[in-house]
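Tutorial handout. Part one gives the primary structure; part two gives the three-dimensional structure as tokens.
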Amino acid sequence: MGIINQGILGGLSGKVGNIIGGSWKGIDYIRLKPSSVANPRTEGQVNKRNKFTATLEFLQPNIEFVREGYKEYAVKQTTFNAAMSEVLNNAIEGTAPNFTVNYAKALLSKGGLKGMLNGAFDVSIGTQINFSWSNNSNEINASTDDRMIFSVYNPLKKESLVGYGGSRVDGATIKVLPSNFSGDLVHVYTAFKSVSGVISNRTYLGSGTVA
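Part two.
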């Protein structure tokens, strides 16, 4: 049985007929109970499911980056859902029913802080990654103590190394990669985060094969 709070115009909790009501993050909602589907694997459903799966496989290993990168957009939604929407709408490509993430278009963070200038990386020296960039802390929306955050995504293993590096003024940092990344192609992302928590759009540095 459903309960209608505060009269007929109030929030609905539970089920009344084929209408289901509830509340999420203080937001009242209602939806129709889904009817039975004769064919749950129509072409449209399969395509949506495949796009969703491709997006999930990319974002889940990068969840720690996403949690920092979408805080500003987590209004009445989670940071993960905000990132899901961004990638689904702007970075999924392919021909039905085969869809993939365009890694160069995928945003792991969105924000107003100044991004990385002349960013580069090298994964040809053992199982480590060398980052380098130009110090642009004298520009608007940038500071010397902005800290670099990075993700090294391995699509074959569906794993990522996510962490923090040096400050904007440092211009370089070195991190050890997981040993099982050796010989695999990786995609590399960076962003800067201010002391107050403001983040930049992610910078896609490209891809490379780990030594």
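Part three, for discussion. Residues 1-12 have pLDDT under 50 and may be disordered. The chain is about 15% helix and 35% strand.
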